Amino acid sequence: MKHLIILIAFLTFFNSCSKDAVPIDSTGYYGKWTLVKMSGSMANSETTGAAMEWQEFYLFNTNGTFTKTRNRNGIKTTISGTYTTENNSDAIYFELVYPNDSELIGSCYGNLKEELYLTANNTLSSTWKNCDGPGLEYKK
Average pLDDT for residues 26-52, to the nearest whole number? Predict the structure, then answer.
């Protein structure tokens, strides 16, 4: 009887662990990431889907290159560049480097670089929001 109680307790403990978000490892980010949510600095300024100011996606390739495409008011704009990743203790960070200036670069610094990071709930988030840019979240 004692063994049965231990077995039930053991199974209950492991079955109760959350299975909601499985973190993406350093190779699971390849592919297409689509913009799913935009937010501003004001409360309740979040938009999703067709209500967003523009639609866009990143396409990350295994060779360290990426393409970013934005559709705004029926005009499609695309730019490509290179990226590197850094696996810190809290997240995987992306540094995207563009070959020339573009309105598609969402950066706090006004240079040819953009920074993104993977969140705990498997969204790709822009750091642009840290300096009054929009909060942009992408899902694979």
Answer: 88
Using DSSP's 3-state secondary structure scheme, residue 59 falls into strand
Q: Which helix (H) or strand (E) holds 136?
A: strand 135-139
Q: What angle do CA 46, 50, 56 make, to 5 degrees?
A: 85
Q: What is the pLDDT of residues 96-120, one digit of tens each?
A: 999 999 999 999 888 999 999 998 8
What pTM value is reported for the model?
Answer: 0.79
d(CA 102, CA 76): 13
Sign of CA dihedral 101, 106, 111, 114: negative
User: Strand 65-72 and strand 55-60: pairing?
Assistant: antiparallel
Q: Average pLDDT, stretch 8-29?
A: 47
Domain at 27-139, CATH class: mainly beta
DSSP assignment of 70-119 equals EEETTEEEEEEEEEEEEE-SS-EEEEEE-SS--TT---SSSSSEEEEEE-
